[in-house]
Amino acid sequence: MGKIKKPQDKKQVKQASKPIPKVKPGTVTIIFLGLILLFIGYIRIRLLSFPLERDEGEYAYFGQLILQGFPPYSLAYNLKLPGTYYSYALIMFLFGQTTVGIHLGLLFLNLGSIVFLFLIAKKLFNDFVAILAAASFGVLGCSPAMLGQAAHATHFVTFFMLAGVYLLILAFEKNKLHFYLLSGVMMGMAFLMKQSGIFFTLFGCVMILLFFLSTPKMIVSGILRFACYIVGFCIPLGLVFLIMYISGVFEKFWFWTMTYPGVYASRVPVSEAWNYFTMNFIPIVKSSMGLWIGAALGALSLFFYPDKVRSRIFIGVFLFFSFLTVVPGFYFRSHYFIPLLPVIGILCGLVLDLLNKKIQKSFGFITYVSGFVFFLLFANTLASNKEYYFTSDPVVLCKKIYAGNPFTESLPIAKYLQENTTEKDKICVFGSEPQIYFYSKRQAASGYIYMYDLVFDHKFVKNLQEDMFRAIEKAKPKFVVFVSCPFSWLPEKGVSDTVFRWIDSYIRENRYLPTCIADISIDGFTNYVWNEEALRYRPQSGTNITVLKRPD
Description:
Strand content: 5-15%
Number of helices: 23
Oligomer: single chain
Structural class: mainly alpha
Shape: globular
Number of strands: 5
Strand order of the largest sheet: 1-2-5-3-4
Radius of gyration: 27 Å
Distance between the termini: 100 Å
């Protein structure tokens, strides 16, 4: 046996006996947060090339027009406020006018939302709740059941809302006027992204009132802070009003964003609200059953969680107003639930943290059982949609998720239109597929990039129909595109007949002829027919796109 070497001097002995430095809890939290951001980033990077759906096409086309110098509501109309349009314009300015560029912008926006949610949960509760909230929100926010890969306006609402909530917490903590002002600005930005964001502004109002009413001696200063919050909210709104007025589109802006939304929201009767809710919400819950059950238990745990009374009230009120953002119009579309996800994430973390505390109190030691439970719930969500998260091609996923919609077909159709027109030529899409305008980089012959507003009964419908007819007749588009797809129209019998008769008459009188047909079969296969062959071809499916050209 060889001899054991002794340390050469006392300095070496001291170094050899020096304990290994402990990792600080805060460092571990940051590492976990970094891993969450990397994982969600990986998923979104994998889906960057996912074809745009029609809402994204709308935002992208508006953003494209803004970059060309045209203000919103001048060459295209829709009922949403212009915040998301300007956000898209900024994203495309930074990352390019492509599908990848748009989704890259969404990637950074979503990661920012995760960080803000982490900071909020950490302030209200602790690091454990913050990490679980961030992970839950991250994976739910990009799930296929929520159409999370698409850069919907709700993602933009969520980002600015979370920034506003975090600043509001800082305002309560530091009691500084500028934090109330900045929180109001962020809530105003959330409202500009989509009208439903107004509920988060109301949430801030309620929390400020509750905070200062609970301390009677501070009521006067509370009024001042409330005023700062409201002024902050009005700043971005006033700026948009000014821009619309200077741009000469204020009248159209007011009609489409303030007058018409009330008409559109009344399309679904109250009696049908529950059916719409269950039809859309049940698939969302089924796709991530464990996390949603955890959130439901988390809502109950608000009554049993020790201490943190103000934080629990804060989350209870936050949950109420977050749900209200889903309700307007009673459509309950799956991506409408995205602004609800931050509080869902916090509730998931809360119930597991309560479990930790109960075990520690009963047995006198810290356990990792709740962390393991969350890992199982998280892994189950990923496993139930593993093709989406890890393996399938984005184009294949698009056909599967949006079956019956011509989103992948819009790309070759738009390429054909771009190659056979000049920048001065206008095109017309009879259908609600604004992504075709964006992809082709060609302007629409009329501002009506959606047909929905023209085919259901409301007090403005005749005026809107006639306005579109006049605009198209004046523009004389070189190409028209007719989309035969129920989801592109959602027609109401009687009202839609007027539009279809006019379209048929316009195409015949101006002798438009088919030059391209994309025939989409039930199994997802698309047969493309071009040029002379398109004249003889008869579509075999009820879902197809026909491109027609005006004679030279």
